[in-house]
Design brief:
Order of helices and strands: EEHEHEHEHHHHHHEHEHH
Helix content: 40-55%
CATH topology of the domain at 9-116 and 184-252: Rossmann fold
Low-confidence stretches: 130-162, 257-264
CATH class of the domain at 9-116 and 184-252: Alpha Beta
CATH superfamily of the domain at 9-116 and 184-252: Alpha/Beta hydrolase fold, catalytic domain
Shape: globular
Strand order of the largest sheet: 1-3-2-4-5-6-7
Largest sheet: 7 strands, mixed
Number of helices: 12
Number of strands: 7
Length: 264
């Protein structure tokens, strides 16, 4: 186990290890309200994914993110974890469950991509050269305006001082293009996901449509938790509902074999 962590991360509580993966763009502060609701009932490890916050390594696609989570588990001495993923990070969790099944005790997927129809026309435009670059840069610049930031991306309030918008834009574009290049293969292997899973759906989600999330749940045999009135930012809007889903998933997961580190 190396001294330097592979991802900048915070840890809270004790018990079953849970890894909370933020969406795109974002940061570990996105989970603050959920961590407060968990109130130490699990061992929550909350990283900045590659390309964001305190993690210095550059952004990558789903496989690179999944491998970084495996390295984080190795670093923390966890044989496996309940993997909780919001939005874009749903693809990371699914890839992790497919390629490293022994490291995933259970899944909690919140507003997650991966189901049929989860990549919309706007995603394809944002991934396009030149046009997508300009549109995404404009959108991230708008989030940099304080009233917009507070409404849409509260985690950006912390990032605005220490993290340049250029880096966030480059990370966003890398991940956006990964949706087109990597997600189809992940979606084609959903029958390889065998971990117990809970899919949490905000019924007013307009970013990843509920029908797509329902299709994902059906494909992996997941329990569905619907959160009335919630949009795409369920961890911020209804943190108690997310925390309860996490605690339930931790109870569904088989006990981790402490010390049985599995090589990536």
């Amino acid at each position: 186990m190396s001294d330097a962590p592979p991802l900048g991360a915070d840890a809270y509580g004790s018990g079953r290890t849970v890894v909370l993966l933020h969406g795109q763009p974002g940061g570990r502060r996105d989970w603050d309200a959920v961590v407060a609701e968990l109130d130490g009932r699990v061992r929550a490890i909350v990283p900045d994914r590659p390309g964001y916050g305190a993690t210095e390594r550059p952004a990558g696609g789903f496989a690179a993110n999944a491998d970084a989570v495996v390295a984080l588990l190795d670093h923390t001495g966890a044989p496996d974890a309940v993997v909780v993923a919001h939005s874009w990070a749903g693809g990371v969790a699914l890839d992790l469950a497919q390629r490293h099944p022994a490291r995933v005790g259970a899944l909690v997927l919140i507003g997650a991509i991966g189901g049929s129809g989860s990549v919309a026309w706007l995603d394809r435009i944002l991934a396009a050269p030149l046009v997508g670059d300009s549109l995404s840069l404009g959108g991230l610049t708008a989030i940099g305006v304080r009233p917009v930031r507070q409404l849409l991306a509260p985690s950006a309030a912390d990032a605005a001082v220490g993290e340049g918008w250029w880096r966030r834009w480059r990370s966003f574009m890398t991940e956006q293009r990964a949706m087109l290049s990597e997600l189809p293969a992940i979606a084609s292997r959903l029958d390889a996901v065998h971990a117990p899973a809970i899919v949490v759906i905000g019924d007013a989600d307009r970013i990843v449509r509920p029908a797509s999330q329902e299709a994902l749940a059906a494909a992996i045999g997941a329990e569905v938790v619907r959160v009335p009135g919630a949009g795409h930012l369920v961890p911020r809007e209804q943190p108690a509902a997310v925390a309860e889903a996490i605690v339930r998933a931790a109870a569904l997961a088989p006990p981790g074999a402490a010390g049985d580190i599995i090589e990536a």
